[in-house]
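Dear colleague,

Following up on Tuesday's group meeting, I ran the structure prediction for the two-component complex that the binding team flagged. I've pasted the input sequences exactly as they went in, so you can double-check that nothing got truncated or mislabelled along the way. The structure tokens for the whole assembly follow below. Feel free to forward this to whoever is handling the docking comparison.

Inputs:
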Amino acid sequence: MADETYPEDLRYHHEHDWVRVEGGEAVFGITWYAQDALGEVVYYDPPEPGATIAKDGAYGELESVKAVSDVIAPAGGEVVAVNQAVRDTPELVNQDPYGEGWLVRVRLSDPAELDALLDASAYREYLSGL
Amino acid sequence: MASALLRTPLHDRHRALGAKLAGFAGWEMPIVYTTTRAEHRAVRERSGLFDVSHMGQIEVTGPAAREFLDGTLTNDLGRIGPGQGQYTLLLQEDGGVVDDLIVYALLDRFLIVCNAANVDPVRTSLTDRAPEGAEVNDRSAEVAMLALQGPAYEAPLAPLVGSPAPLALEYFEITEDEVAGVPALVARTGYTGEPGVEIMCPVSGAGRVWDRLMAGPDAPEPAGLAARDTLRLEVGYPLYGQDLSRERTPIEAGLAWACDLEGGFVGVEECRRRKAEGPAERLVMMKLLEPGIPRPGCAVLAGGEPVGEVTSGTLSPTLDVGIAMGYLRPDVASPGTDVMVDIRGKQKAGRVERRPLVQTSPTKAG
């Protein structure tokens, strides 16, 4: 398992999802906190490439040994890629939640939606209040 | 208000190993130490050590003990003598399962091992029925229990036993001996499908037994309740509270083999009736043919109509597919039957399978 970290270059959704902006596209995943709470991830049910996903909506499911969790989109857009490596090896989400364990790549419909997200320090502060 | 969780004598060891602990049947138990997959594999390939001290131990003594238990529990107690154990069940009068058990015949007493959640109902049911000459004593609080399971279980155990007897046990036999100098009952039983032993000892000695088993070059992997669940499900052992309950009898659960229907036991009339008429549903194993993980409560369909429900489900670490146990209508309960499992609104193709899904040989040592 990875050590607890919340990289500074990401933006965070309070449902424990992160987004990394790369031009007009963005990569989504779940935070260290989320993977730790979920436990050992054993299954990823992703959206179809081309699917439209809405901000704050569930776009897929991650399932651990004992629980199922929806993954929430920090912003809306069109799915341009799904991480096939996580489909094949779901524990990548535990081992490297911000790297190899990314979940989808999305073409953002409204990049201004990102403004409502938390930065790393605000997210850490949010976690400390849970 | 929730009452505090009970702790086993090995609680500090679990903490020190970094286990994730969670409440289970009123106990704070280790769920996983590293990963369920790694612990599961260790048990299938080498050996693992489980703290199952939450389980109940109830002793029945006295000159009438044998006759009492034979007339109360489902299996034919006449088939075992001192030093042997037997899988059996305790039912309600209506045939509903109070608990599934192992009863061991010892030289001077019978020892019943029951599920943690059922210690009170089992003790109460036995106490209420016990005749003159049979005494029921709940030893659960005094007894710790460790399950050493896996094809290589003998290696860590062999240097610690007081005599060769524990290593010479046949499947389901039990002996009173010592482990690491601690007086202990060692039984060739378990809940993983692998060869192994269950060690019962005084609470005060459990730490020493654990430490010494863990100390050698052949130390088992500590294994949590999550791996225990995936291991038992791969081999199709039912779990009380999911696959067995007061709402169903052993006949539906495929446990008629553990019921002496010609003899007597509490609930026998209903079991005979259902056996004769044919049960309305049958507990089966299923395997998914596409990605997905069945969970308790998932509906099972065949030919577009509902035919049953999942009672246990997981991702099989050995097969890497979703597997389940569940109750199906008898006409679709035969191995090979194609079914659909509804997982949160998505229908996944599955098939009824023969038990066990993973070939193991608990009767043989590695």
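The mean pLDDT of chain A is 94.

Cheers,
M.
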